[in-house]
Amino acid sequence: MHSRDVDGPTEKCGVVGISLSDRQAARPLYYSLYALQHRGQEAAGIVTHDGFQQHSHVELGLVGDAFDPEDLSGLNGTTGIGHVRYPTAGGLDEGCAQPFTVSFKSGALGLAHNGTLVNADEVRDELAAVGHAFTTDSDTEVIAHDLARNLLDADVIEAVRRTMERIHGSYSLTIAHDDRVMAVRDPGGNRPLCIGELDDGYVIASESAVVDTLDGDLVRDVHPGELVILDRDGAGFESHQLLERDRTAHCFFEHVYFARPDSMIDGTLVYETRRDLGARLWADHGIDTDVVMPVPDSGRAFASGYAEAAAEDGSEVDFAEGLMKNRYVGRTFIMPTQDERERAVRLKLNPIKSTVEGRTVTLIDDSVVRGTTSTQLISLLRDVGAAEVHLRIGSPPIAAPCYLGIDMATREELIAAGRSVEGIREVIGADSLAYLSPDAVADAIGTGRENLCMGCVTGEYPYDVSGEATDRDVTRPEIDVPADD
Ligand code: AMP
């Protein structure tokens, strides 16, 4: 195995591409970004093409703040792509906002990327050596330059194939090459990407909730290693299977936490998977308590599946919303210090005293990362008089970092790194704690464990990450990097 560095900021984002017969694409792209807002709140952008020239508007902030009506009316053309960007540890950085655009001899390119490359530095160095100038440390810029170079001496399909052979890691991309919209998904299919049919065109998006929002019909997922090219007149699309892998590397965490519950990913409805995970939690680790309550909103589908399975088994457990959420407080993860994160949990969630006072409680969430949320909530529930607090988690312990596009935490920050379940229970102060096994999660998702990326659980990655183990044979060709003379 040879190793590569994981470079640049992690790109945990949402992407979309649209081609319509004769309607302006800007509005449907804008609605699509709203539907993908949960995938990124730092910046939003749209790039369109009117057949003559490219138009672009990219701004920091939520979708609703990034565009005003004039911005949208300036985005002419029936084809285009869009992007929402997730906040990264380095804070706000306008240069990294997307879609990334570059003009070159054979036209204008726009690129929207979800995922993270594991060999961006290597490709960037190689391109810099032949004269490409880079303005950001984003791996999306690396993809854009590599593709632009390949488009100079190959047709579009061959150019994309060459770029896909050169870049490694996780990528779901929507690409605007002048007024032609394309999409590719890495050969492991790590991040989701699907195709939808509209009344007057086609859409490609990170999640099928976009297709629903536009009143379209989900056609199918983009296959891992596939290039999809939308017809310019919105009448259909071409498919080219450019790279194949024996096994996929779908991210299990999309199903557990990241994707919207109303999205279908790789053939399964996320909501049903989460309910199934909840039912499995009851089957494997159920405990009779007076009340079951979700951590809102992340634990909700899990808790309803758990409570339903408990009731079917004859348990008299009560299902209650015992924690009220202040929806105006941002995700705890974007608070830079531990102290701020702890305060944010307290601001975000407040218990309803009467549902917990004097009662035994099972608290349900999708995941424990740093342990901040669960530690705080357990102490809050005790403060308002809970007799016992048992925690049930709908995924395995997260014990290793994600290098493929989910902003988790460093290994040192992860509460499960180097700790047993009993050790974690002690730190977070629960009366009991249980997680689901990786196999139970894989069974609920239904693709088989060998087809999932579970790197953050096992510490073995399906991609070739520097300094980390892999769970599969990595057989990619050594590329000749031009030598310095
Ligand atoms: P922690 O408080 O660090 O243990 O994080 C766990 C909580 O954050 C759970 O309620 C999860 O639903 C949520 N969560 C898990 N992963 C992420 C992520 N990558 N970004 C933001 N929130 C997350």
Describe this structure in words.
- The protein is built from 16 helices and 26 strands.
- By secondary structure, it is of the alpha+beta class.
- Helix 5 packs across helix 6, helix 9 packs across helix 10 and helix 11 packs across helix 13.
- The radius of gyration is 23 Å and the shape is globular.
- The chain binds adenosine monophosphate.
- Adenosine monophosphate binds next to helix 13.
- The site of adenosine monophosphate has 19 residues, from helix 13.
Q: Give the CATH class of the largest domain.
A: Alpha Beta
Strand order of the largest sheet: 3-2-4-1-10-9-11
Would you report the number of β strands?
Answer: 26
Mean pLDDT: 91
Rg: 23 Å
Ions, cofactors and other ligands present here are: adenosine monophosphate
What share of the residues lie within helices?
Answer: 25-40%
In CATH, the architecture of the largest domain is: 4-Layer Sandwich
Low-confidence stretches: 1-9, 475-485
> How far apart, in Å, are the first and last alpha carbons?
28 Å
CATH domain fold name of the largest domain:
Glutamine Phosphoribosylpyrophosphate, subunit 1, domain 1
Shape: globular
Tell me the name of the CATH homologous superfamily of the largest domain: Aminohydrolase, N-terminal nucleophile (Ntn) domain
